[in-house]
Design brief:
The chain has about 70 residues and is mainly alpha-helical. It has one domain (about 5-60). It contains 3 helices and no strands. Helix 2 packs across helix 3 (about 50-60). The longest helix is centred in the N-terminal third of the chain and has 15 residues, at about 5-15. It starts with a helix and ends with a helix.
Length: about 70
């Protein structure tokens, strides 16, 4: 456990560093990845498919390679 939450933290850091609209970006990421940010916690089980989808969504939306 923890990889999914680590991705969430890195994405949130990017959103803050780039001064982006967090609600807008997180909403778009959730729609693309199928995983709502609000429900990702440190105890969220790591799901390889969810991790791959979130990475792909971050790449498409934030141009961020994870």
């Amino acid at each position: 456990m923890g990889q999914l939450n680590d991705l969430k933290v890195k994405i949130e850091e990017k959103i803050k560093a780039d001064n982006l609209d967090a609600a807008d970006i997180k909403g778009k990421l959730g729609l693309r990845s199928g995983k709502l940010f609000a429900f990702i916690t440190p105890t969220t089980p790591d799901d390889p498919a969810a991790i791959a989808k979130l990475k792909e969504a971050a790449k498409e939306i934030l141009h961020m390679s994870l």
